[in-house]
Design brief:
108 residues; alpha+beta; Wheat Germ Agglutinin (Isolectin 2), domain 1; three-stranded antiparallel beta sheet; 3 helices; elongated
Length: 108
Amino acid sequence: MRGLKEGEPRFECLECDDFVQCKKCADLKDHPHKMKKFIVPQGCAPPPDNEIKKIVENLKFCAECNYKFTDFDFMYQMKKNPDFILCEPCLKSNEKLYKESNFEKVNS
């Protein structure tokens, strides 16, 4: 993962808050929503790659829908694998796949 540099294209989701991809990732077309192309403005510089890595390591996403949890959300963490996290809608809609008793509701 790296930051986008000035003059590079960026693709923003028209439905998700704060969801941006580079051209290479957007070309994979693995995001379910429509994307819009923008150009990173002149004078914009991303943080160094090591800072980006630290930021991303602290983010939490639902393993099913990729919802990015905020500080105000609850999430369901698998008891046997705490890195596996679901949002409530994904847990409830996949009851045959995931048993709620195997998860713990925690603050994000």
